[in-house]
Amino acid sequence: MSAGTRKAAAERSKPEPDARERILEAAYDLFSRQGIRAVGIDAIIERSGVARMTLYRHFSSKDALVLAFLERREQRWSSFATYAITDTLAGTGLAPNLAGGGQYFAIFADGHNRQLPRLTGGPFRYKTYAADTLARSIKFATKPVKQAVIAPSMLALLYPLNEEVPGYSREEFEADLADECEKDIRKAFEAGAARVSIDFTEGRLATRADPRNPWTGAGMLPHFIELNNRVLDRFSAEERVNIGVHTCPGGDRDSVHSADVPYSDLLPSLFQLNAGYFLIQCASERDKDPVYRQIGEHSRDDANGVPQVCYLGVTVTQSPRVESAQEICDQLVRAANFIPKERLGSTDDCGFSPFSIDEKPNHGSPDYAREVAFQKIHNRVEGTRMAAEKLGVGIGVAA
Questions:
Q1: For residue 208, which of 16, 216, 272, 362 is within the disulfide window of CB 3.0 to 4.6 Å?
Q2: Cα dihedral 109, 285, 208, 255 in deg (nearest 10)
């Protein structure tokens, strides 16, 4: 082989400098639109315009490509907890006056954590509102849409626990925070949401007293209730009928952060919130009757002008086992012994995938987890219908 021939062969054998990126971008687009299981290697090769050998040079298998996709997804999209203040889970694209290295929001049972940015100054402003994404998605909806927003109590953790931010007091920060949270809710309604739910997963965590995460032992629950009510009380009773609160022990990578905290530490305080409805994790509780009893005792017929409707979680979102419609019906009928049936409804324990596309160790793959989620939702709707017939009342079904 001549020197010229060897050089040409060597050039042909070099990976194209942008081949990996083109493969990953093609996979990202196809996986996002069609689902991981539905997309084969041939489709990715066709979309990216590379040879099969080139693809396998960069990614040894489809599983390796899926892992790279999930990593990129996490780099590109924020979690629900931080959508208002940062572009990505990796902490890039922070809102003004924020920096990395803040408090942990949560340390989960499997050991992984989610960390917040830290506040460095004022004023505090959202970078993104929930309505920004709602406006893009609602055009595809054929049913009324419930939009979730982050609670002011969660974002209050941006302020250092035991330090003052120079030139910006905690009182000034929380005044700005309340204004932004109110705006987040109002903009969601303006964008077409029929209901807005405030995510209050930090409520149960606030009583955990985890020495690895100091804020959880700082007795912050009463302040969280006051801060959230500061926002809720800016809305009329007619508006608050459609503003709710969600509580659960967290859900990420099929793990939780506060399931070991007794509900009795939270529920008496939870219903001090002047919300019109509550979405309450319950299906994964081992002993449900005490939870039903406390909900019945502490939820209010009149919370500053609105009755508090209690939507109980009847499906376990971390488990791939699909609950039957009969099982769900039985849960609701039992709960009606403790909670007024006129204020009783059903929901899922938590979001099925609150951090973009989760890793799902218990499920095996995000695609399978998605199929399971739709089966659970179908059975929840049917089980709720069955319970309503037994109880002789219309029981609400929450999204």
A1: 216
A2: 20
